């Protein structure tokens, strides 16, 4: 947080120096300079430790002498009891910044961007002020344009105090076609064996289709398909030579289709014994087809 406050400069004959001092400080912060109250002069009383914690405003009634009509009104510079906290939010979310101030007289509170541009209720912005010095800045459906440094500014006759905070907007990852996170392996079996091909894909509302040699297959013997959530399994019972070939699983959602290919080799038990099982290097193809 960035905090600072203004203290009045003692002695009425230094009023102009006080005004120049204010303008200098405000120019350093890129914030508007405070304007003195007409007919008022600022004084300050030092504490035992040398710091000025409480000031007083002397109000002068026109047509009367300073000595007989002046009254001292104690004042205390604003102070933040609760500072607004920086927030990192996802695009589209609503964020709420809160703060609470104290001071004598009760300070006014203003929300602004770091360049000094004030924020008012309207559109996606909403400001709520409570009766106990608390205030809220609400920004609805934030986007990249809202990412900025902001400030809460408290003012009274005792000075100005500001607290800065940041809003960081995280851009959501754009939706995409499904991505396989569990893949079946190409395999070699003998006639009469059972085969299990398993797939799992990430993505929103994924559906599946199975193909053999580019022709769609369904729940008809010797095939059986089970779909559970984002998983699918193709079972081949009592495989024959006819079930050998290339199999493909398509994972589909509204953003696209991802295809996984693998080969099933079915060997005849009459030609080859278990000790002479054919060793086949099979390709695994992971192919993405965007709609």
Verbal overview:
The protein is mainly beta and 291 residues long. The chain folds into two domains: 159 residues, Immunoglobulins (Immunoglobulin-like, Sandwich); 111 residues, Immunoglobulin-like (Sandwich). It is built from two helices and 20 strands. The protein has a six-stranded antiparallel beta sheet, with no helix packed on it. Strands 12, 14, 15, 18, 19 and 20 form a six-stranded mixed beta sheet that branches. Strands 4-10-9-6 form a four-stranded mixed beta sheet, with no helix packed on it. The longest helix is centred in the first third of the chain and has 15 residues. InterPro entries: Ig-like_dom, Ig-like_dom_sf, Ig-like_fold, Ig_I-set, Ig_sub, Ig_sub2.
Summarize the structure.
InterPro entries: Ig-like_dom, Ig-like_dom_sf, Ig-like_fold, Ig_I-set, Ig_sub, Ig_sub2. With 291 residues, the protein is mainly beta.
Compute the number of structural domains: 2
Instruction: Identify the overall geometry.
Output: rod-shaped
CATH architectural label of the largest domain:
Sandwich
In the predicted model, the low-confidence regions spanning at least 5 consecutive residues are 1-15, 25-55, 275-291
Helix content: under 10%
Q: From the alpha-carbon coordinates, what is the Rg to the nearest angstrom?
A: 37 Å
Structural class of the secondary elements?
Answer: mainly beta
Q: Note the gap between the termini.
A: 48 Å
Q: Could you state the CATH homologous superfamily of the largest domain?
A: Immunoglobulins
Order of helices and strands: HEEHEEEEEEEEEEEEEEEEEE
Portion in strands: over 45%
* Highest-level CATH class of the largest domain: Mainly Beta
* Mean pLDDT score: 77
Quickly count the helices. 2
Q: Largest beta sheet: what is the strand line-up? A: 1-2-3-5-8-7
CATH topology of the largest domain: Immunoglobulin-like
Number of strands: 20
Region (Disordered): 31-55
Domain Ig-like: 78-168, 178-267
Protein name: Ig-like domain-containing protein
GO cellular component, one term: plasma membrane
């Amino acid at each position: 947080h960035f905090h600072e406050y203004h203290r009045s400069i003692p002695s009425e004959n230094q009023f102009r120096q006080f005004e120049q001092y204010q303008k200098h400080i405000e120019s350093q912060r890129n914030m508007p300079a405070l304007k003195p109250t007409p007919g008022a002069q600022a004084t300050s009383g030092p504490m035992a430790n040398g710091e000025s914690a409480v000031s007083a405003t002397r109000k002068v009634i026109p047509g009367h002498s300073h000595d007989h009509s002046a009254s001292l009104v104690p004042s205390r510079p604003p102070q933040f009891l609760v500072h607004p906290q920086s927030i990192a939010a996802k695009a589209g979310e609503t964020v709420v910044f809160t703060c609470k101030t104290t001071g004598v007289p009760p300070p006014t509170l203003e929300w602004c961007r770091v360049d000094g541009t004030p924020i008012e209720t309207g559109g996606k912005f909403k400001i709520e002020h409570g009766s106990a010095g608390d205030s809220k800045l609400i920004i609805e459906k934030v986007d990249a344009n809202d990412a900025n440094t902001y400030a809460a500014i408290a003012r009274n006759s005792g000075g100005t105090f500001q607290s800065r905070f940041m809003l960081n907007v995280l851009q959501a990852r754009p939706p995409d076609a499904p991505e396989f996170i569990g893949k079946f392996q190409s395999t070699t079996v003998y006639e009469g064996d059972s085969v299990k091909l398993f797939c799992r894909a990430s993505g929103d509302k994924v559906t599946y289709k199975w193909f053999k040699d580019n022709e769609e297959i369904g729940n008809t013997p010797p095939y059986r398909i089970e779909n559970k959530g984002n998983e699918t399994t193709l079972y081949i019972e009592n495989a024959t030579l006819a079930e050998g070939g290339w199999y493909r699983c398509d994972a589909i959602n509204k953003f696209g289709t991802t295809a996984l290919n693998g080969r099933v080799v079915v060997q005849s038990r009459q030609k080859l014994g278990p000790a002479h099982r054919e060793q086949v290097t099979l390709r695994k193809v992971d192919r993405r087809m965007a709609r």
